């Protein structure tokens, strides 16, 4: 007997899996120094080697995103949700028992691979489960990434304060992906397209609206990660806060992002997603500039944290309007969107660093305002062409 589809239960399991994704991405930064000491022998690993460890997770993330999309369109979402959680289990367990640097490196790649598969597959599953409220569902889903980041930081901080080793934390965190793999196993998953079948990616690449959406999510990723990656350093070096306070700023930034996405999710049906994108972009521009140039350090830091709230919905809401526009885009469409979002998240931190080296970090942070500023006319274009499609069929 075929099991009935349970949209509400499966949606909440996907939300929990987003927490698992956040653990995979954020665990290494929390324990980077301790891992450097563990594997460095007499001398801790230098910054270049530690940077390579981070790049291994990101490489696995990208491979997971790119490979999973086309395969999920062919074989369905369920095998890849299960495989992703099992890869997270293997990665965490392998980290916990790794005796050498090579083993650790392999396990970090596997951890990133599982995280990338989850990053790609969860959004189309939740979009298919909630076709009438995609903006709310996408923002709820991605709010749990922020929740997972906060949980990882808090657990890591508590472990360091109480003398527990990073390996012990790996064994504790392994319970989540293991439990999720068991919970997902009996579930029936939705098809990722409508009865009309999937739109080929070649056709999507010819749609000007889709190309604009790719640029929008690139800018959304740039808005989010430009500030997130530089906030602790900016708070300490430019605003004069202690290392502990500067590190706490990132925690509060993640909380602000979670609350922002939850707030937008609760506005579903009452506010246009394009209004959410426009207002969020405009407010983020203002807050980035205030955070960069206010002379009062406390107010400047508060503005930076508040930007997490206003800019939080740009990425998930762009996913939602893309799924509404192309409900037959399938997992491949979400894979391309995720790849562009992550590309923006790579580009802006680099640009902030370049400008910071040329001038100072205040100007680097101010440079981040370029991304949400460029979002404003782009949102207008996306909204206009959506209105045109509703009035005249077919549209490009």
Largest sheet properties: none
CATH class wording of the largest domain: Mainly Alpha
CATH homologous superfamily caption of the largest domain: MFS general substrate transporter like domains
- What's the number of domains? 2
> Radius of gyration over alpha carbons?
21 Å
CATH topology of the largest domain: Growth Hormone, Chain: A
What is the helix tally?
16
Secondary-structure class: mainly alpha
Q: What general outline do the C-alpha atoms trace?
A: globular
How helix-rich are the residues, as a percent range? over 70%
Q: What is the distance, rounded to the nearest whole angstrom, between the alpha carbons of the first and last residues?
A: 43 Å
InterPro entries: MFS, MFS_dom, MFS_trans_sf, MFS_Transporter
Family: Belongs to the major facilitator superfamily.
Organism: Oryzicola mucosus
Pfam families: MFS_1 (PF07690)
Put the structure in a nutshell.
This protein has 396 residues and is mainly α. Helix content is 81%, strand content 0%.
Describe the structure in your own words:
It is a multi-pass membrane protein. GO terms for molecular function: transmembrane transporter activity. This is MFS transporter. One of its GO terms (cellular component) is membrane. It comes from Oryzicola mucosus. The protein has 396 residues and is an all-alpha fold. The chain has 2 domains: 178 residues, Growth Hormone, Chain: A (Up-down Bundle); 187 residues, Growth Hormone, Chain: A (Up-down Bundle), CATH 1.20.1250. 81% of the residues lie in helices and 0% in strands. The chain has 16 helices and no strands. Helix 2 packs parallel to helix 4 and helix 9 packs antiparallel against helix 16. It is globular. The protein starts with 6 loop residues before the first helix and ends in a 5-residue tail after the last helix. The model has no long low-confidence stretch (mean pLDDT 89).
């Amino acid at each position: 007997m075929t099991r009935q589809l349970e949209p509400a239960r499966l949606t909440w399991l996907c939300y929990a899996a987003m927490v698992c994704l956040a653990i995979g991405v954020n665990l290494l930064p929390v324990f980077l120094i301790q891992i450097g000491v563990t594997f460095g022998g007499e001398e801790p690993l230098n910054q270049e080697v530690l940077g390579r460890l981070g790049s291994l997770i990101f490489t696995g993330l990208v491979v997971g995103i790119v490979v999973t999309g086309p395969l999920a369109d062919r074989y369905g979402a369920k095998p890849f949700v299960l495989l992703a959680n099992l890869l997270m289990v293997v990665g965490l367990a392998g980290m916990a028992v790794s005796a050498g640097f090579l083993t650790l490196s392999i396990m970090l790649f596997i951890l990133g691979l599982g995280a990338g598969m989850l990053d790609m597959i969860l959004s189309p599953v939740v979009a298919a489960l909630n076709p009438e409220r995609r903006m709310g569902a996408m923002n709820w889903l991605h709010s749990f990434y922020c929740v997972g980041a906060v949980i990882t930081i808090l657990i890591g901080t508590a472990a360091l304060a109480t003398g527990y080793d990073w390996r012990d934390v790996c064994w504790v965190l392994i319970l989540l992906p293991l439990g999720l793999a068991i919970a997902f196993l009996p579930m029936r998953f939705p098809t990722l397209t409508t009865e009309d079948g999937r739109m080929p990616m070649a056709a999507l690449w010819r749609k000007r609206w889709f190309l604009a959406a790719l640029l929008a999510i690139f800018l959304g990723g740039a808005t989010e990660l430009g500030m997130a990656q530089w906030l602790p350093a900016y708070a300490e070096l430019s605003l004069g806060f202690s290392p502990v306070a500067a590190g706490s700023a990132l925690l509060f930034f993640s909380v602000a992002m979670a609350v922002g996405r939850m707030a937008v999710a609760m506005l579903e049906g009452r506010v246009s997603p394009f209004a959410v994108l426009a207002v969020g972009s405009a407010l983020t521009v203002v807050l980035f500039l205030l955070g960069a140039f206010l002379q009062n350090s406390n107010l400047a830091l508060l503005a930076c944290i508040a930007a997490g709230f206003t800019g939080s919905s740009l990425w998930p809401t762009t996913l939602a309007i893309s799924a509404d526009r192309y409900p037959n885009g399938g997992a491949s469409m979400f894979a391309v969107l995720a790849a562009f979002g992550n590309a923006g998240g790579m580009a802006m931190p680099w640009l902030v660093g370049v400008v910071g080296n040329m001038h100072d970090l205040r100007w680097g942070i101010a440079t981040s305002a370029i991304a949400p500023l460029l979002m404003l006319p782009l949102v207008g274009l996306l909204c206009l062409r959506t209105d045109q499609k509703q009035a005249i069929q077919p549209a490009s």
